[in-house]
Amino acid sequence: MSENNQQKNNTESDLNEVLKIRREKLAVLQESGANPFEITSYERTDMAGDIKENYADFEGKVVSIAGRLMSKRVMGKMSFADLADRSGRIQLCVKRDELGDDEYKVYKKYDIGDIVGVTGEVFTTQKGEISVRASKIVLLSKSLRPLPEKYHGLTNTDLRYRQRYVDLIMNPDVKRTFELRSRIIRAIRNYLDSRGYMEVETPILNTIPGGAAARPFITHHNTLDIDMYLRIAPELYLKRLIVGGFEKVYEMGRLFRNEGMDVKHNPEFTTIELYEAYTDYLGMMELTENLIKTVAQEVLGTTKITYQDEEIDLGQPWARMTMLESIKKYTGVDFSQTKTAEEAEELAKSIGVECDADAPKLSRGEIISLVFEEKVEEELVQPTFIYEYPVEISPLAKRFADNPEFTERFEIFITRREFGNAFSELNDPIDQKERFMSQVEKREQGDDEANMMDEDYVNALEYGLPPTGGLGIGIDRLVMLLTDSSSIRDVLLFPTMKPLD
After folding, report:
1. Binding-site positions
2. Which terminus of the chain has fewer CB atoms gathered within 10 Å of its CB, N or C?
3. What string of H, E and C letters represents the secondary structure of 81-124?
4. Whole-angstrom distance, CA of residue 60 vs CA of residue 68
């Protein structure tokens, strides 16, 4: 047997012994009529963090606190322990003379990980540690599994994601990330609510997966006997609401795309989409910049942040470039001089961008987009708006009247990745139907990410959609940026994982 296998077997044997001992302790408690799982509540008066932050108000005061035992040091007639609740940790001082002989014997058998309620007086030890001198301890829940000894330093990230509950117990930084996520989401809602936007809910189960170019998850509705799709975007429903007279709407929620997984992508993820009547993509640019600056300032107290060792200044005016300008800046070639797909393809080859020979032939606009993705995105570190996107890759965006091959669309790039997408919404029902038909042709040629025809949406446009600006922002990526998280899995409480079996 190899040394690694021997160590693994020894570890499993030790764990099984610990599990056995803890269950035996539980059985003894239950037989004595002290089953912790029968306790239904515990009235606590204060939180650990509040006591430590406001010690002058608590010194000498009797408090009742509750939380998990994170450490325990028994020294004869006196013991110390650390108790953690949602606000932080505080030290417990447990003396036999104050707790009583019988209760102290019971306490000594408690395990790290057990959840307890403690009543006692707040004081400071000789070493200056703010503590609670316990006069009563109640076991509220028995931990039947041992906590990892050094979970923070664990290199097995797969286990951290699978057992997030343990990750949260042992790693305060992880807990803080999700507290910040909640505050970020709240700040976004407050910003929009204060500007007259109304939060709405639209269907997650769709009969047509519209509003984006993505591969959907397919399910089946038994009663109707039809296939349905988990939504890939709420866009078309939200714009129907603008047609109906709601002039400022937003929806924050989960989207589902049956695509690859990496540090930036998870099959289900959170976005916010918002739509405002009587504005355009320039209005959305202003809103986007102000929104993200405001959220950073409110949540972090600054607009200058560090992301993966790079300084990012969200507070400065954000750069703005057309897609063609950005390609020329970073590659030196000018696609505005090309007129056909063949000319664009040759120019792309000259800078090392090859079109897939086995895929359907790309249009000029699609080639320009491909060059941008391969040569420009990696250069966009500081906040940058890239606008004027080719019409072929923007089936829901309004064309420029004086340059109809391009649309009034932009995307937001920070730290070399896209954070949001916006445009002046296409409100011409005739043009929209033609673009849907073009997307249908792509689907028939094998592009399963192309849009389907949505006759009802075209019907809605025929009633009249006012000039409208729309915006979508990836919430998970924004949280990654503002919490300096390298992977989307670090900002999702329960990321999608392949089953172990």
Report:
1. 411, 418
2. C
3. EEEEECCEEEEEEEEHHHHCHHHHHHHHCCCCCCEEEEEEEEEE
4. 23
CATH of domain 170-318+382-490: 3.30.930.10
The label of the residue with tokens 């932009």 reads 410
Which tokens belong to 273?
Answer: 């989409």
- Do the domains 170-318+382-490 and 3-141 match in fold? no
Annotated binding residues for Mg(2+), written as ranges, equal 411, 418
Amino acid at 325: E
User: Tens place of pLDDT for every residue, the chain, 501 residues?
Assistant: 565 665 556 667 888 999 999 999 999 999 999 999 999 999 999 999 999 999 999 999 999 999 999 999 999 899 999 999 999 999 999 999 999 999 999 999 999 999 999 999 999 999 999 999 999 999 999 999 999 875 444 557 888 999 999 999 999 999 999 999 999 999 999 999 999 999 999 999 999 999 988 999 999 999 999 999 999 999 999 999 999 999 999 999 999 999 999 999 999 999 999 999 999 999 999 999 999 999 999 999 999 999 999 999 999 999 999 999 999 999 999 999 999 999 999 999 999 999 988 788 999 999 999 999 999 999 999 999 999 999 999 999 999 999 999 999 999 999 999 999 999 999 999 999 999 999 899 888 888 888 889 999 999 999 999 999 999 999 999 999 999 999 999 999 999 999 987
Give the architecture-level CATH label for domain 3-141. Beta Barrel (2.40)
- Counting every residue, how long is the chain? 501
Using CA atoms, how far apart are residues 123 and 193, in angstroms rounded to an integer? 45
